[in-house]
Design brief:
Two copies of one chain form a homodimer. In chain A, β4 and β5 form a beta hairpin. Chain A folds into three domains: 72 residues, Arc Repressor Mutant, subunit A, CATH 1.10.10; 132 residues, Nucleotidyltransferase, domain 5 (2-Layer Sandwich); 130 residues, Nucleotidyltransferase, domain 5 (2-Layer Sandwich), CATH 3.30.420.40. In chain A, α2 packs across α3, α4 crosses α5 and α8 crosses α10. Helix content of chain A is 38%, strand content 21%. The interface between A and B is large, with 77 and 77 residues. Chain A binds a DNA duplex (30 and 30 nucleotides) through α1 and α3.
Chain lengths: 367, 367
DNA sequence: GCCCTTTAGCAACAGCGTTGCTTAAGTGGG
DNA sequence: CCCACTTAAGCAACGCTGTTGCTAAAGGGC
């Protein structure tokens, strides 16, 4: 229980919600196998009786169900509890320059429906909102049978934008999008809550929920180079959703001119090397930036993703890893920061976008 | 009310402590003038009656007192409440290679006693602990009259160390300190709680408490170059207290060799320029690193400190500011990130160290 | 089959912030 | 000057939280 919610005081209602979210989060990580009431009590520090009461409420709400019994340890066996996946759903929308991906996920984050189609950001905001809305409606309507409440739509896009207000700042190449309130426009059109975030943040959130613990950086190497930062389990967006601008970090003073106007940005160096076919150099440059990040933030893990990484994953992991290993050796650290390819692949951003709506249920704060 | 305390559940006792800390924090920021119960209620979202109950408990504990009345706005005038400064004290200890500074501060953070003396880290751990302990005892004993409970001692030192366990990793130039459990040794010797942290973190904490809001970076340019990061009001230390290693960020790939063994670190470039007498170049290099930091973390403010900055404050502020201004212009941001010289001066680290013990009282989480 | 161990729930309870109302302490109009 | 009005602060009762004490349920081992 800490102060991050804008300095607000807490009453009994807040307390209840907090503990309920805590339980749900533990139940989610436990997965299909479930977790017993007593283990929930141990993990939270609450009394078993409190856990019984809280889980009873969650069962009444249909969010939690019993899932068999565990082996006895000499007495009455523990009853496992698990999340009810179909108790709630969320849509994740990944909008790119020329393509749209949409997923419908259940409460556990499992994908129960997906769609993919062309998109033209140049067609104007109204047309794009309409296309996106139709995809969402198709996805939600296309699933047969009873569908637990759809909590809303998470939208992930590249480029600078404002998560708090759901407004786009700029969409590279399409000045007509400047300042467009995408969140509210889509919410009004669909009649359900919408949350907007950067693609890299959505991907990082998805990875955090999937089980990556502690603090890590997700580096995305695609048409641009960006990062999603997870610090202490929460996505770090900064005051204006600007955090994670990894690509325009300068690592070569007075180096070649970058598209942003500065010189020696990691993006121009890295993508330049890729263009020359020198993947090892690209990985080395990326590694230097990653090492800067690791030192600055003391993170535990670096995850790589994006089209360019996907083309040669091992070489990038090896190249970035080499730089981090060298750094660890210089520092005398016991073990270097590991580097891996992010799971999720092409759908990772859309799945993470859906988590923008699920996360609050599990006590993952908005910031 | 958020989840940062290791996943623990919250009971009524935790709720009470949380709201009490919230009140104390608001009372502290209100300073000598105080703040009315109703304003506390507005700021926290709690009902006026709840505020009355909570502040009544705090008054019973002697932490809060009435401080006059405000002007009437047509009815009964509001009663101002303020912290009782002498209700608690803490010691801040700043240990450098060759010098020791110690301050005794009251609950509001005001300095009520200070000491300064030579120190030789090469004299060995036992001797240093003894010298430090004597300074603390002298400081605590030297204040006449009733002294509210001394909560403990905050110790700030350079170099890599582990805040969580209170253990030094390395002290540059003194290998015999490797792994020394300074926190526990000093705590045993003094019989009071001790908290250990990096000097830059202590300075940043002190600045955060002094009223710098939101997220900022404190860049310290002294014998080395380090940073203290405050994100969302809390010091970001990272998993192993390693965060803030700003100086060994590479900004000149394959540049000159640094003392750390890498090439093109900001520290070797910046201090090299200072050595050549080229302050403007040093400021430009520092600015490039600051711009990287601003982009990566989306912070609101950059504060400069340390001996070298103190020698030519305006030129550093101007030089770093110019780089950040150029960056803001490229980004099309409405206003550039401001740069200032950190208040606190030579005693800033020691004062911040004392806040390591006061901060928990005011709900400023340990991490 | 009995005893023991362990789990889960029922009932009473202390303590939290909230609600409804009363008292305190000012201002300002007639 | 006094009285009506406004605003602040506290008292009492209340609903709800997690906790405590105890009981019932359910399995294993001798």
């Amino acid at each position: 229980m800490n102060r991050t919610n804008g300095g607000g005081g807490a009453n009994l209602y807040a307390l209840r919600g907090y503990n309920a979210a805590l339980m749900l989060d533990l139940l989610r990580s436990a997965g299909r196998a479930g977790i017993s009431r007593l283990e929930l009590a141990e993990r939270t520090g609450l009394t078993p009786q409190a856990v019984s009461k809280i889980t009873a409420r969650l069962r009444d709400d249909g969010l939690v169900a019993e899932a068999g019994r565990q082996a006895s340890t000499g007495g009455k066996p523990r009853t496992s509890l698990r999340l009810v996946p179909e108790a709630g759903h969320a849509v994740g929308l990944h909008l790119e320059r020329d393509e749209l991906r949409a997923v419908l996920v259940d409460l556990t984050g499992a994908v129960v429906g997906e769609r993919r189609g062309p998109l033209d950001l140049g067609a104007g905001s109204e047309a794009v909102v309409e296309v996106a809305a139709r995809e969402v409606e198709g996805l939600v309507g296309g699933v047969d049978g009873e569908l637990g409440a759809v909590l809303g739509v998470g939208v992930a896009m590249p480029g600078p934008l404002d998560h708090t207000h759901g407004v786009l700042h700029r969409v590279t190449g399409f000045p007509e999008w400047d300042g467009f309130p995408l969140r509210d426009a889509l919410a009004r059109r669909l009649g359900m809550p919408v949350v907007l975030d950067k693609d890299t943040n959505a991907a990082a959130l998805g990875l955090a929920v999937e089980g990556e613990v502690g603090s890590f950086a997700y580096l995305h190497l695609g048409t641009g180079l960006g990062a999603g930062l997870v610090l202490g389990g929460a996505v770090h967006r900064g005051a204006h959703t600007g955090a994670g601008e990894f690509g325009h970090q300068v690592i070569q003073l007075d180096g070649p001119v970058c598209s942003c106007g500065d010189r020696g940005c990691i993006e121009v160096l890295c993508l330049g090397a890729v263009a020359r076919g020198d993947v090892d150099e690209a990985a080395r440059v990326l590694g230097a930036g990653a090492a800067n990040l690791v030192g600055l933030l003391d993170i535990d893990l670096v995850l790589l993703g994006g089209r360019i990484v996907a083309a040669e994953p091992e070489r990038f992991v090896r190249g970035v890893g080499a730089v981090l290993d060298a750094r660890a050796q210089r520092e005398g650290a016991s073990s270097p920061v590991p580097v891996r390819v992010a799971s999720g692949g092409e759908w990772g951003v859309a799945e993470g976008a859906a988590q923008l709506l699920l996360a609050p249920l599990f006590g993952r704060a908005e910031d």
